[in-house]
Amino acid sequence: MFAFCTDPETLNRAAWMACYLTTGKHVAFYGAFGTVLLLLAVTAPTALAFGFLGAVAARSRLWLVSGIGRVYIALVRGVPDIAFFLFFVIALDQAFEWLRHQVKCPDWDQPIRQGSDFVVCAAAKLPLSTAPQWMHEVYGFLLAVVTFAIVFGAFAANVLFGAMRAVPRAQIETAEAYGMTARQTFWRILVPQMWVYALPGLSNLWMVLIKATPLLFLLGVEDIVYWARDLGGTKTPQFTAYPHGDWRMWYFLALLVFYLGFTRVSEIVLSRLMVRLTHGQATLAGEAQRKAAA
Amino acid sequence: MSCWETIADYAFRSLGFGERLLPRTDFTVCQQFTLIGSGMLWNIYFGAVALVSGFVLATAVALGKASAHPLLRKPSEWFIFVFRGSPLFIQFFFAYFAFLSLKSAYPFFDPFTSAWLGALIVLFLNTAAYSGEIFYGALLSVPKGDLEAADAYGFSGWRKFRRITWPTMLRLAWPAYTNEAIFLFHATALVFFSGFPARQQQGDALYYANYFADKTFNPFVPYPILAFYFILLTLAIIGLFGLVNRRLNRHLPQGTRPRMRLRPQIVR
């Protein structure tokens, strides 16, 4: 990176550190923090959408739809999220390939599950075996996003389901008395009012989501945990210009500090958002704000 | 091989008893059920020991955070912040590598690098922080009237805490604490995926479920089995904590007793 980095052995400590922390692999490590932020940016709205659908399904009057919604919400509660992550990554992959197999190779006569193998025709492989490396990485990342969205969607569905029930019944009745249809009541009365009840749960969920991002490592994505293990391990002079002992502890300490800072900042932002949303609401906190202003 | 033989061979495989070799080909559902169930022993061990020991520290931390003295309050606040603000997964990794470094300097730390002690310590501290925050919140909402009544009856110091403040705090915190217990048991599934080695393939339920999913390349059998076990465990926790909840609330009039809900809040 720097011009003086050509011969690391002659450098003093500070310069050595500066060179060491700007090697190509370290830059990839810093880029992995971007992967985490990208995952959060994509997953949070997707999970919210899944949650909204789940909550609406659970409230449905059709028992089948309502049953599906409730099972979706309930299942995630009983089982560790990491189990879902490990499950969905393979299951989704196989489901996609199976679907493509049915469409693309209808005249395939062998069974797909042969003992311990999952065999689909070459055209149904995802991504195609001829695809470049970045396609494989993007596909892996997308699988991770969908997995996160499914799991956290169930959590969000639970929060939104509770929030919809927390909206005062009188509000709905008033809407009905004014002659609004069920659809109008839902979109104009229920949905705008539920957010203030949902926000404490959703901000909690955001915190949990942040703290679940290192699980990306288990899904085979080259994320910060992967790089921290890789870079921190003992390096001997044969293989690198920057030999050092086992520094993995310090790399994980850095990750710990990163997450602490991240959750702290989120906490502050979310509490401000809560103040905003409470404004003018018929709740205890909203009333307190009104009195303070008057 | 009949299913009974499989159970006899593998029921305590996770603890190192019975058949040494894991099945490699021709996996049966019975084998998967037995081995994953055998792994559950580890989850129960981690969860139960961390919960019981964490309970004590959590009470201390909650009292510390509620204390007026900064020397007690600040460390408690920081403890809760550090363990609640960072992912358990990273805590496991950090602790494992920290113990590994310590071990190379002092042989005393040798057992700390194995899961049964090292991971247990992390889980213990982690649950103490989460429960500490729950207890702290409950401590702040102990009704003023109860404490004034205690004063009027001549309670003070330790006796007042033991007889009035602490039981009320527990009573108020219990539903949230139940939720935390469920999450703690779920969190135990992370142990063998975060640095801590499963020596001689003695792992927890998820370790074996993952083993079967990798070997058969069919996730649709082992993970539902795992889910079955964990749902059973979750129901058992809710049942057990419900009994304690009944006891904690037994002095209240029938109608106002808070009931344990089968659908508690799910987010930690």
UniProtKB/TrEMBL annotation, chain A:
<feature type="transmembrane region" description="Helical">
    <location>
        <begin position="249"/>
        <end position="270"/>
    </location>
</feature>
<feature type="domain" description="ABC transmembrane type-1">
    <location>
        <begin position="33"/>
        <end position="270"/>
    </location>
</feature>
<protein>
    <submittedName>
        <fullName>ABC transporter permease</fullName>
    </submittedName>
</protein>
<keyword id="KW-0813">Transport</keyword>
<feature type="transmembrane region" description="Helical">
    <location>
        <begin position="70"/>
        <end position="92"/>
    </location>
</feature>
<comment type="similarity">
    <text>Belongs to the binding-protein-dependent transport system permease family.</text>
</comment>
<dbReference type="InterPro" id="IPR035906">
    <property type="entry name" value="MetI-like_sf"/>
</dbReference>
<dbReference type="InterPro" id="IPR051613">
    <property type="entry name" value="ABC_transp_permease_HisMQ"/>
</dbReference>
<feature type="transmembrane region" description="Helical">
    <location>
        <begin position="27"/>
        <end position="58"/>
    </location>
</feature>
<keyword id="KW-0472">Membrane</keyword>
<feature type="transmembrane region" description="Helical">
    <location>
        <begin position="138"/>
        <end position="161"/>
    </location>
</feature>
<keyword id="KW-1133">Transmembrane helix</keyword>
<keyword id="KW-0812">Transmembrane</keyword>
<dbReference type="GO" id="GO:0055085">
    <property type="term" value="P:transmembrane transport"/>
</dbReference>
<dbReference type="GO" id="GO:0005886">
    <property type="term" value="C:plasma membrane"/>
</dbReference>
<dbReference type="InterPro" id="IPR000515">
    <property type="entry name" value="MetI-like"/>
</dbReference>
<dbReference type="Pfam" id="PF00528">
    <property type="entry name" value="BPD_transp_1"/>
</dbReference>
Automatic annotation (TrEMBL), chain B:
<keyword id="KW-0813">Transport</keyword>
<dbReference type="GO" id="GO:0022857">
    <property type="term" value="F:transmembrane transporter activity"/>
</dbReference>
<dbReference type="InterPro" id="IPR043429">
    <property type="entry name" value="ArtM/GltK/GlnP/TcyL/YhdX-like"/>
</dbReference>
<dbReference type="GO" id="GO:0006865">
    <property type="term" value="P:amino acid transport"/>
</dbReference>
<keyword id="KW-1003">Cell membrane</keyword>
<feature type="transmembrane region" description="Helical">
    <location>
        <begin position="44"/>
        <end position="66"/>
    </location>
</feature>
<feature type="transmembrane region" description="Helical">
    <location>
        <begin position="78"/>
        <end position="102"/>
    </location>
</feature>
<feature type="domain" description="ABC transmembrane type-1">
    <location>
        <begin position="40"/>
        <end position="244"/>
    </location>
</feature>
<dbReference type="Pfam" id="PF00528">
    <property type="entry name" value="BPD_transp_1"/>
</dbReference>
<keyword id="KW-1133">Transmembrane helix</keyword>
<dbReference type="InterPro" id="IPR010065">
    <property type="entry name" value="AA_ABC_transptr_permease_3TM"/>
</dbReference>
<dbReference type="InterPro" id="IPR035906">
    <property type="entry name" value="MetI-like_sf"/>
</dbReference>
<feature type="transmembrane region" description="Helical">
    <location>
        <begin position="114"/>
        <end position="136"/>
    </location>
</feature>
<keyword id="KW-0029">Amino-acid transport</keyword>
<feature type="transmembrane region" description="Helical">
    <location>
        <begin position="220"/>
        <end position="244"/>
    </location>
</feature>
<protein>
    <submittedName>
        <fullName>Amino acid ABC transporter permease</fullName>
    </submittedName>
</protein>
<keyword id="KW-0472">Membrane</keyword>
<dbReference type="GO" id="GO:0043190">
    <property type="term" value="C:ATP-binding cassette (ABC) transporter complex"/>
</dbReference>
<keyword id="KW-0812">Transmembrane</keyword>
<comment type="similarity">
    <text>Belongs to the binding-protein-dependent transport system permease family. HisMQ subfamily.</text>
</comment>
<dbReference type="InterPro" id="IPR000515">
    <property type="entry name" value="MetI-like"/>
</dbReference>
